[in-house]
Amino acid sequence: MNPSFTLPFEQCDAGEIRSVGGKCASLGELLRAGLTVPPGFAVTTDAHELFLESSDLRAREEEVLERIDHEDVAALNEGSRELRALVERAPIPDEVVTAVTQAYGELARRAGDESLPVAVRSSATAEDMSAASFAGQLQTYLWIRGEDDVVEYMRRCWSGFFTPEAISYRKRMEIPPEEALMSVAIQRMVDARTAGVMFTLNPVNGDRSKIMIESTWGLGEAVVSGEVDPDRFLVDKVILEVLERTIAAKQVEYRLDPVRGEVVSAPVDDERREEASLSDPEVIALARLGKQIEKHYGRPMDVEWAVDATQGELFLLQARAETVWSQRERPALVEKKTSALDYVLADLLGRGQKAGDKA
Amino acid sequence: MVVSATVEDVTTTGNAASTNGSSRRFPSPFGVDAPPGAEDWRRLYPDYYLFSDERREYEEEQFWFFDGMHNPEPVYPFDAIMPESWWVFLNQYLTRVWQVPPTLGIDQRLVNGYLYVSPTTITDPDVIEERVAVFMERAGFYYGNWDELYEKWVGKAEDCIARLRELTFEPLPELEPMEMVESGRGLTSGYDLLANYSRLLENMHEMANYHFELHMLGYGAIMTFSDFCKTAFPGIPDQTIAKMLGGVELLLFRPDDELRKLARLALELGVADAITAHEKPDDALAAVAELERGSEWLDALEAAKEPWFWFSTGPGYCHQHRAWIDDMRVPFSAMRGYIEKLQQGIDIDRPLGALVGERERIATEYAEALPTEEDREAFQQVLALARQVYPLVENHNFYVEHWHHSIFWNKVRDLGKVLQGAGFLEDSEDIFLLHRYDLYEAIFDLLTGWATTNPSRPEYWRTEVAERKQIMEKLRTWAPPAALGKPPEAVTEAATVMLWGITAETVEQWLSAQDGGGGEGDSGELKGFAASPGVAEGPARVILTVAELDQVRTDEILVCPITAPSWAPVFSRIQGAVSDIGGIMSHAAIVSREYGLPAVVGTGFGTKRIKTGQRVRVDGNTGVVTVLD
């Protein structure tokens, strides 16, 4: 067995990004920062590469790329269909299957659940993550149980590598097939009572002394996709106090349908609809983590998180650099003065700040 | 308060009135009736304190609000010396010393004995610009030499207090003693009585000058820091801003610290049980004196008294506010509480080190959250200035209102005893029913009789005082409207917002309340300033005067018009506090933060809407008080 086919999150870091992708590297970094992340492992680009090579997919992709125009939708669709059909039929090399089933077995054993439910997600290696996201490389499959299904859904992530958008992207960016690879993250599923996102600044005005948390019942997908209007909490980052609470009417939640064994979008029962999906102590605990994450990365971050339904434990699922305000040039709030007295005078005259919108 | 463009505009009514889009008005100060039986209330006060036809045009165009924060009750004629002091000596600093660019004076009037104030600001940019240069030079000098001036200030304040203590008021002798003759001094007891009375008034006015010398500039610096924070960190709680300024080593906490020390010493010396077993301070003192090491504890108590027990049980500017030294119930009740806590093994020390560390951490983290290096520099500058002035802004209170004023009121009482002895007053406390000008007349009346050995008019003064007592009684039943005159277009004046806690929202609430509109409504919710964070629920205890303070039970929510720092011992028993009056820099707010209690201040109607025993929730994060019953 080649150990480089899988890598536990603990060993993933930014240096491994070419091999484990951005998502796994970020989870590994969170773990090393001492934060609680559901355990799991990366299926590395080595595994992906061996699969592509052993199944003639490489050569076929080259042919397709050569043949088509990246803006020709019909041709892209046809090329995608062809390649994805191949991914679905091609045998996965035994070494890879063994490595993945062993890593899953280990994860399951540690959790004490033989068919431990996991999330299977693609972990893109493209440097520009937002471009990768446009390219449709971000498949997510939730609540996958047992080694066979894990392998099967890993294959679906690989299949997602050949969506028309992904092919078009690589063609446009002239990324040679031998350099284009992806990793897959296999991670213990959090049975989320509540989940959502957190920004370690106020996304409304870029104020870095605040943390904004959006939360909803069930899995975070509803917040991420914008399907529900989430509860919003504005927290003072310095003194860790909730400054504003907006409790929304949450119509739907994503949760596991135990009968069908899959995640469904279900209506929220009446009594929970307008109830806060996070308690104040949970908001504060989360903000405290946000502060820790920001400190670790040294910049404002976007964080995805979930609260476990049974233990109430708080898990971090994802942390990305905040991009909107961080990339914006922020002008100084005050006009530079020579002494403190100048500021007092300006304040007395109601001209303290440039914005000048003091009512 | 943006009331008008220039001084001229204030007096030309048409101009000022047309700028106000709304025709809504508060009652005219000229249309207010006296409560039945008190029609003659004006004779208790000097004419210049009343609304008058000579100034009517100006007066009707001003916004006057009830200053229940300093004077919740009708002002006693003698006690008028306090508001009158700041009427002149605060305003002179704003207008004639600093020439604060946008600020004209804060005017005052009495209506049915209640104090109404009216701040005026300038909005004409040209007028402001002219004033800027003067202000910058003068205020710049004070800020630039602040520490030195503050040290000097403490010296002046202490000297003023020392001279006040020297003043004595003795009964006039039948015959001047032989020493008077032999000394060749040439001044009599009659002269001394009159002269010491004049000195007493001068001393009060002198302290009032010192009071406002540094204090308004201090407020300006703190306000600047506060506004900076609110712009840079929208939504930052007011109490967090105050936390960055500290206030850990303030004199206002010293008296309470002394009580902790005495409680600890009582346990060491084995006199604790004698203190806890007696409700009345005198009984406790007698019991302690009986014990072997009792005298050691009593010596320590005496040592602590000077000056720390010159700590008023009220804000200090009314004669009813007695200092601990005159009413030992408050300090003894607090000591009993501390002894009981120590006996249960509970730590009663304030975590000073932790508070200082927290202050630095908070300031550092906010600075880090600023967008640019320039902003961080500006933040550090305004923070440094605000911190520099903060001790004065807080400590002046101990020197002025507590130490000086408590002694001042006692000196007036000494004079009252002289007048009582001469038959001019039934009771020495009646002296407060005479305005200071009346009192000069009364003393001279007394002197004419003493000097000629012929009759003076003691009955006249006794009758006058009896009638005034009845008028005061009637005035107390009157409910003063929140405001009179013309509503302001905006509320920006610093003291109005920070000290009185009045905002545009407050004015709107008052207007809709008088229109019978929703405003406060019956929702069971009161809005005020979030003064100290946290949420508490418990039975309410409505306390209107300091005399009722001993009714407060453990875990109750204190509901009061206004608190004073000396109520601090009660804060160790209660769960939360609600006040009618005050902004985030008011005493209730500062003490609540220090004691870590949720507090909402400036609710306007707390003591009227809440009844003792009702369950209430105080949310010190949002500034909302909810009546749960």
Which spans of chain A have pLDDT < 50 for at least 5 consecutive residues? 352-359
Which class of secondary structure composition applies to the elements of chain A?
alpha+beta
Largest sheet of chain B: 8 strands, mixed
The number of E-state strands of chain A comes to 13
Q: Look at the structure and give the CATH class of the largest domain in chain A.
A: Alpha Beta
Averaged pLDDT of chain B, please? 88
Number of helices of chain A: 12
Strand order of the largest sheet of chain B: 5-12-11-7-8-9-10-6
Number of domains of chain A: 3
3D architecture notes:
The complex is a heterodimer of chains A (359) and B (629). With 359 residues, chain A is an alpha+beta fold. Helices cover 38% and strands 23% of the residues of chain A. Chain A has helices at 17-32, 45-54, 57-67, 73-89, 94-111, 129-134, 147-160, 164-172, 221-224, 270-273, 280-297, 340-348, and strands at residues 6-8, 40-43, 118-124, 140-144, 182-188, 192-199, 210-217, 231-236, 241-246, 252-257, 262-267, 301-308, 314-321. In chain A, the strands form three sheets. Chain A has a six-stranded antiparallel beta sheet with strand order 9-8-7-6-12-13. In chain A, strands 1-2-5-3-4 form a five-stranded antiparallel beta sheet. The relative contact order of chain A is 0.12. The model of chain A is unreliable at 352-359 (pLDDT under 50). Chain B has four domains: 7-136 and 475-510, no CATH class; 141-249 and 376-453, no CATH class; 251-352, no CATH class; 522-627, Phosphohistidine domain (Glucose Oxidase, domain 1, 3-Layer(bba) Sandwich), CATH 3.50.30. In chain B, helix 9 (238-245) packs across helix 15 (352-368) and helix 10 (254-268) crosses helix 14 (329-343). The chains are: A alpha+beta (359), B alpha+beta (629). At the A-B interface, strand 9 and helix 12 of A face helix 5, helix 8, helix 15 and helix 16 of B.
